[in-house]
Amino acid sequence: MDQNQFKEALAAFPSAQGKTLDKLSQERPVLVVFLRHGGCPFCRQVLDQLQALSAQLEQQNLQLAIVHMMNNEQAEKLLSRYALHNVQHFSDPERKLYELFQVKRGNLSETIGPAIWWSGFKTTILSGYLPGIPGKDIQQLGAAVILDKSHVVASHFSQNSADLPDWAQLLACEIPRE
Predict the structure, then answer these.
(1) CB 141 within 8 Å of CB 161
(2) pTM to 2 decimals?
(3) Contact, 178 vs 136, CB < 8 A?
(4) What's 3-171's CATH class?
(5) Boundaries of every domain in the chain
(6) How far apart are CA 38 and CA 135, in angstroms?
(7) Thioredoxin domain spans which residues (predicted)?
């Protein structure tokens, strides 16, 4: 897919607030976070981390956009729990944005296999990110990309359900704004 096709595809998906990723990224750079299903404890951990990073994102002039597979009502309830209710968010139950950005779907060992159990124990029991009702696609992995003028300038694509972005490294990228 060439850049024009990518930009057109971005323009076809409005957020719950009516803006597209293309429009947002023309205004200023956007940290786009692709969540796993809403019941995932790792998803909840990411939302908590994003809430803690909100001042830094604002200081770096980065907008936050969240892509999820929930309906908007479910998403707003979950986002409100982490004080992220004012964030642009995109309901994508058909996973079209996930596919556009090539966000990986994990196999069973990458999503709930033995290698994930220790991380899951630490996240759920030790850190208190209790799971909710599993969502539509428990095999969908997460990702985070920085999008500027419809170009990906930095990214982290999870290799398993416990693989969360190194936010400091991701946010340290150079954004070539004109």
Answers:
(1) yes
(2) 0.89
(3) no
(4) alpha beta
(5) 3-171
(6) 6
(7) 1-176
